[in-house]
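We were asked to recover a plausible sequence for a given structure. The inputs and outputs are reproduced exactly as logged, with field labels preserved.

PROBLEM: sequence recovery
POSITIONS: 208
GIVEN STRUCTURE:
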């Protein structure tokens, strides 16, 4: 491997591996260029030649469509897209996988945690962690940047009382929905009376 100063200020590395030439410019010192070059060579020898232009948002979107769309429950799939939306709305979305590290990811989680409850943060972090575990397995990255991430919720989680309605409220809601004559009202009435969820209906077998 060769390293050289190409404009009097910046350094580059250059080497050939299995008939293909690899070169990268823009390093401040010879030592930095040499270190990056050796890392790249090591990745190639271990089969980790990834797409340097692949961003987190592009990878996560493709991951959902490829591995999750047809196998997860509706609520889980919806949360994956909720997570994708937040990735896209944050600058981390445009960060290339090859540049994503623990510090960048921790800052994203710190920002996300300000306005969300602990359970939402846990699910969001879990989704991204799973996606990046697959990226490691596929050889796109060396390490998972979500490792040992920490967070503190900015919003408190809802109490059990806030999550559920009382029996009196349940009866009032059922009577109100029963008077409506729309498809959505019928669907709600069935859910209220049976406790059935949409994800459950999807997998029901109907015996004609």
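RECOVERED SEQUENCE:
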């Amino acid at each position: 491997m060769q390293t050289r100063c190409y404009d009097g200020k910046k350094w580059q590395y250059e080497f050939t591996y299995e008939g293909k030439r690899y070169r990268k410019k823009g390093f401040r010192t010879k030592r930095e260029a040499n270190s990056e070059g050796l890392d790249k060579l090591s990745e190639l020898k271990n089969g980790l030649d990834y797409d340097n232009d692949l961003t987190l948002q592009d990878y996560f979107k493709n991951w959902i469509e490829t591995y999750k769309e047809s196998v997860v429950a509706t609520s889980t799939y919806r949360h994956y897209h909720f997570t994708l939306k937040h990735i896209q709305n944050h600058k981390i979305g445009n960060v290339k996988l090859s540049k994503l590290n623990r510090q960048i990811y921790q800052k994203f989680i710190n920002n996300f945690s300000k306005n969300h409850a602990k359970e939402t943060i846990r699910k969001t972090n879990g989704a991204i962690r799973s996606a990046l575990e697959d990226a490691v397995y596929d050889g796109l990255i060396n390490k998972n940047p979500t490792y040992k991430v920490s967070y503190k919720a900015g919003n408190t989680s809802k109490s059990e009382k806030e999550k559920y309605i009382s029996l009196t409220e349940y009866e009032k809601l059922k009577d109100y929905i029963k008077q409506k004559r729309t498809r959505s009202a019928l669907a709600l009435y069935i859910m209220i009376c049976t406790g059935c969820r949409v994800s459950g209906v999807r997998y029901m077998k109907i015996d004609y």
